[in-house]
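Appendix B, example 12.
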Amino acid sequence: MKYYILTSSLNLNIILSQERIAPQKEYVHTYYEVLPEFAKYSDVLFLFSVIPTFSIEDNERENYPMAIEFDDDTQLNYETIPKYHNDSYEVLFVNKSLYLTPWNCKILFFSDKARIMSSLIIKESRCVKLGDNFLIDNTLPKEITLSSILNDVTFSDCLKSREIIGKKDNYDIINITKGGIWGNILGHKRSVSPDSANLRILQRRIYDIVASVISNNGNCQSVFYEELVALDKHFRSIVCRSIEDEWNEKYEGIEKQLHELGVYDVGKKNFYEKRGFSFFSLPTNFSVRDKWLSYRNETIKTIDRHIEQQKEDIIKNDNTFKKIIVDDYKLNTDDEFINLVLNLIYNGELNVEKLRISRVNVIKNIASEIQNHLGEAKWENSSERKYMLSLYNNIENFEPFSLGDSPNIALISIAAFIMKGENYDDLMRYLEEEGVTDYSYVLTLWGALEGYESLSKGIFKSLLTVENVNSVNTKIWKKWKTYTAFPSYAKNLSSVVNESTVSNAKEISVLGFDSFFEKLQELVGDKRAVIISKDKQIYKRLYNQSGGLSENFLNTIRESKVQKYVLNAVAKILKGKGKEEKNGVDVFNRNNYFYNDKQAWELIKDLVPDFAKNNLKSDLKWFQEELQKPREKRYKYYQQINENNNSDTIERFCRLKEKEKNGKPQAPYFTKELREQIKERLLSFYANR
């Protein structure tokens, strides 16, 4: 059942960074804007079955009324949550954190301005990881006011008599665990082979020497040139090893004949280039500056390409999630030493500030934990004690220390974490400089130390997939329902909330925006088109938030103070759109029917998981081709379909292969949830066309 939580738009950033909302008392370390009506109820979160009317008087800040629609029966155990109920509405009294996902909630505002301004703020937020996947929408509240509910005598009596279950809120633990798991995912992605780690060191040194040569007009001192020759030879021996082995296997026996025919050099060059290696030579120590620039760029490109190829092999054999478990919300890995450090983080004995201020004390604490774990007798002459003592002397007395002196990747990870664990960029640079190959443990510790709330979305952008979100949440919440795609909200329909209808301008299809932007570039001219193309994503965001091409969009970009030629062009397109629509033609989407629109797949492919794309694309093609046949030549079931009725054809397509065959699903890749998402997307696009 859907309930509504009332709050201020100033809280949106922290709510989506934490992906939870809680009673006020739980925001101990974070500023939380309290609504005046709730100021005296710090231990309870009110969930209303309707949205009551309330307002915020704040002329100095962009502060608006906001409601969160929450629909998650698993978290709301109705038997244990006290509530107030009458004929008009119901209110739950919740005293714990409620965790928000794109699937169980919506963010609702009472005006376009509130929605747009709040959306822009979280778009720029560093810590809102899944912000693009939450629906931010408009709604209308009921006529009943919040104050009238709270001041009602029977409501007050019910609130006073409620039973408070004193279970401790577990957000702090979950924040650490979630951060640690995402760090582990990132660690697996960033891990490299020994060759790749070696190449990174070579690349950095080659870059430094060549940069010095370039600044010296191509003149390289002999001592550095000799080093460069050795580095160049080493780098080529690594990147060319597998190619050379393949060459020898195929052509070693005929190399003499290739030389005699005069095709050896050309043949070998072509062989290498087909495998991604371009031949280029180390310049002489008195070459012109351009030759050194070319050499540096080719070296960097070749090494980067080689590392990416090796990463693909690592990812294929990846064991992400197989080395970690979550028990009672706490994370454990398959290594006992890493778990000792995680326990210090959970217990509050280790945090970012303590690591930054006193690494020596952190080493002592971790060494003491390892000592207690191994036992005094085993610890005294152990390699672990020797390694940790060397690290201590390095920090305390500036004595030499080598990260790679231990064969134990867990100890190496702990040492790197102690040295640089409070800053991601410094940590990554240090790991590369030291030639570390396995990043999974050290980034697990880093992620746990930071906590999920503080992790930067920029670092995790490519990892925020449905599959990873499912995997992380399944680890933490055993009853987590897995999803095949993020929910799609690309539609132009009217929404009914609390029996009040409000026209909502949702994000239209990407195809519509691209068509608009192409027209915009055409109207402003080639030179100006290049300028505005740099801000394409900004225009797209405003376009979608304004509900597409409309007066609202024109006013929004006018407030953004864009160039006058952009405003004139948008106004011209808007005027032209109105004329064409009067003639029954949508200027962007035309009047295509679903059954014969070749662009239909483009509209839905982002909803479809990668493993299902080929099958579903093939099904769509078959379905459309079947409906393009004369009715009498179609399969009997399809003869009764009116191809000119988009609602009917879309409904039929979303029931394709729905029935089981021989007791098994015909199309296990076409899940019930995916059918609903595709149906919603297609209906929103082809409705009334």
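Residues 326 and 478 are 10 Å apart (CA to CA). Residues 289-316 form the longest helix (28 residues).
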